[in-house]
Amino acid sequence: MEDRGKDSPRVGNKKAKSKKKKERKRYFDTPTDIEEFTPNFNKFFQKQRREVFRQRREQTKRTIGGVNNTDVIQTKSGPKSKKTSHLPNDVKEYLRKADPFPGDAPIPKDRMKKYRRGKKMNMDGIKTKHQEYDYKLKEKKLSLAVRQAARAELLLQEQAGFLEADEGEDTTQITQHDISESVDITSAQKFFELHLNQFGPYRMNYTRNGRHLLLGGQKGHVAAMDWQTKKLMCEMNVMETVQDVKWLHLETMFAVAQKQWTYIYDNQGIELHCLKMLDRVLRLEFLPYHFLLASSNAKGYLSYIDVSVGQKVAGCQTGLGRLDVMCSNPHNGIVHLGHSGGTVSLWSPNVKEPLVKMLCHGGGVRSIAVDKKGQYMATSGVDRYLKIWDMRTYKALQCYKIGAGANNLAFSQREMLAAGLGNIVQVYQDCCRVPVKSPYLSHRLPSSVQGLQFCPYEDVLGASHGVGFASLIIPGSGEANFDALEANPYQTKKQRRHAEVKMLLEKIQPEMITLDTSKLGQIDVKSLEQKIEERNKLLFLKPQNLDFEPKYKMKGRSKTKRLEQRKKGVREERKKDIIREGVARKQKQSQQQKQSELRTGSTSVLDRFKRTDRDT
Amino acid sequence: MKIKVLCRNPDEYLRETKRDIHKVPRNYDPSLHPFEAAREYTRALNATKLERVFAKPFVGSLDGHKDGVHCLSKHPTSLSLVLSGSYDGEIRIWNLPKRSCVRSISGHAGYVRGLCFHPNGNYFFSCGDDKTIKQWNMATEDGVVEEPVNTILGKTIFHSMDHHWKENMFATCGQLVDVWDESRAEPVRSFSWGVDSIGSIKFNPTETHLLGATGSDRSIMLYDMRGSAPLRKVILKLRSNTIAWNPMEAFIFTAASEDYNLYTFDMRRLDMPLNIHMDHVSAVLDVDYSPTGKEFVSGSYDKTIRIFEVEKGRSREVYHTKRMQRVMCVKWSLDNKYLLSGSDEMNIRVWKARAAEKLGVLKPREREAFQYSDKIKEKFAHHPQVKRIARHRHVPKMIYNASKELKTIKASKKRKEANRRAHSKPGSVPHVPERKKPVVSEFE
Q1: What pLDDT, in 10s, does the model give residues A185-217?
Q2: Does B361 touch chain A (CB under 8 A)?
Q3: Cα B144 from chain centroid?
Q4: Which of A243, A491, B106, B383 is deepest in the core (most CB within 10 A)?
């Protein structure tokens, strides 16, 4: 290694000499002509960059070699000073002024990984140069897109919230009142409670952009509001049991599962539709990209309705009893149902049977939640366990035993998990990958929890309970930066209308709901093979015609009876032929087998005592 | 206790005044954009469907001729001017944007066989069945009876003519291939190669001394204007009606053949065409390249015109109307946007080269949207649904049935050959490449 260090300046000198030779030929090579030198400035940048790279390479080699850092620094400065020493002063000046960090700023690897969609393409099978060039160009463009996306993170305006306890303290002990006292006024207003003690246990739902809140009391009270400004949009009593409420694609419409039918209201509370296809529904789920309203009912019937056209897309009798635990996977649109036997089944509208059925708990399943990326599923059961499942392997990752068991679960956008344990709401941070000991935050409500949902793009957890609704501040739960083309909390009316049109145009057909969402972008290899096979067959084998068509014969000879007879005869003969062929083939095969057995037969000593078919 | 809670200042997300555009903050995190592939696919499908919806290629027709249109000629410098010659000897000059006839000249007795402009566009030549070549001025005084500037009397009927791309020379063909100087009444040079009738002749736009001609003995011949003898000749199984040189690749030309196909040849290797372009169901009568050299248009006896990409064997587009009859001549305009077709029923039709293209100036956002949809269509082009919609064309019943019939004929031939191969001694029925089949022989 040291030899190398000595070598490198020598090499540099050689290069410098050759450079000098070249420089001698230049007619403008006088100090006054230094302005002329500027066009070559790029070369110096290049040189500099090369130098930096070389140094880095050497440095890494040295560190691997085990030489200590001080050595590295010495050798690093050594050749550099020698290299620049031969240059004229003005050039040195330029070099000094030049960018010390040339080129683009480096992007951290993990950030690149976040934006990368799959591996690079395998270029092995490409036949022509042109195709290879095309694919390389495409690959280049893709990597550029990844880099640009990663770099665009710099432009994000907001930073996610957080909560750190003092030393010797635990975040679990921090109450909502503590939080609301120590944050600014607008944030403090996000902690509030609604006391609605008349119309009994409430269900709730936030819109996709997190601006609007829908409450439905079991005794018929339905209210929609802009929860941030606390402006009530509508409030009514439907005079019937309300099982579940759900916003549709926008804040202009919502669905209410009532005692008998399901109804759709607009944000003024005017009844738009009565969906008699959905009767005695217990839970509703809305898939916004597919415009599908999934519902599960008391008789075990799961149905999908396309709300953009108002037609039933699919429905099936699950035969698994009362379906009051339901959740949809936001990543792939699969509906998860929890059953009293402790199983969780996964459904898509295209298959009449569950895609996956997993036994999750010893007792009945009480609640399910799936995280945003569709990687983890949290389930809680009557057996008082809370389990986290990996949705790629369908195996349990974590298993927590909680006091009375959770009756409600919800994932936040940043993978926090909220669980309602009776009248206590607990929030866990990072509970999926590593086991956690204590909750991140916890809050006691006046009555038992009936519905839980994190408000999208806000650090807020909504919890509806027996006697009202509570909005809790959970720092760090919400995604800080929204994408205005997906969900925009600050949408104007015009933008909303525009977005609605776009959403409708991009409605994904229900056939595309699959467990693996990347399937669509992959090559259909099997069918291609099949195609080629079929084509080959077509070209080189005359299609066999089993149905014999007798030629038309002279008058009197082609009576229908005779025709039939001839046909029959030919058919019989062909059948016989085929059977004969088959028998012959089988005989041949068996003979060959026997021969091969004889040839390669096992050579055990005791083989001769074995019974063979020929003996019998 | 350290705490931070998300709290957005609405001022940063709302526009300041009503005249501003809306603020659209983006976050490219893939987890915020679920169903990426499915949504993109839906967009591609919609774009493909919209393309079909907006595919209205017919721009207009120029009517005025009293007999079928036999030949067309593009003005070399002006996009708006076009010449046409008809069966009754009438030559018309058209203004394309106005879709009106500027001038009509009764040029010849009998067919107008050929028309060509001088490269500066100030005058043009015509030849006809009356054995004359006439030179006409573009600029005229009003109210004067049209008289040719110059008339040359030939010995035989001329079938076609073309002007040199730079010099004051032009070539005609009939019994012989003659090269003429504009200032002389006798041909400078005459070529013959054992054929009594040569149907069409074209100058190479890049190698300007080269000429390509098609003969009635099913041959395509190449001449060099500087030499005294013809260069090369290839004989195909059926006659070629005309050829067109690729304006971007000097060696490449495409021949329109009587056997319903077009053959793209490399001039240096005439033993095998580079590509066979199939889809017409009747003889192809004319072909013309786009100025980009990537596509060409062909007009056929089956009453359709088709657009082919040079590397592809199948057409990307087919145009037809109820009233259009046999297409005698086609031209691709020099701005790469329009096609012209002259047909038997006295009309010249103007078509868009890309059927779904929006005409006129595009706003930047519009252009961006079109580019995006083009790219996405390309990305999902191989999905069966997208492919099906993009390929679907409504064609007249006659063409539909004829193409189906051709397909069965071809399949049965193939099957027959395969069977013959399967049942004969190995090697006795050799595999002949499909591209070699149409070529009979090549002469130097």
Answers
A1: 999 999 999 999 999 899 999 999 999 999 999
A2: no
A3: 37
A4: A243
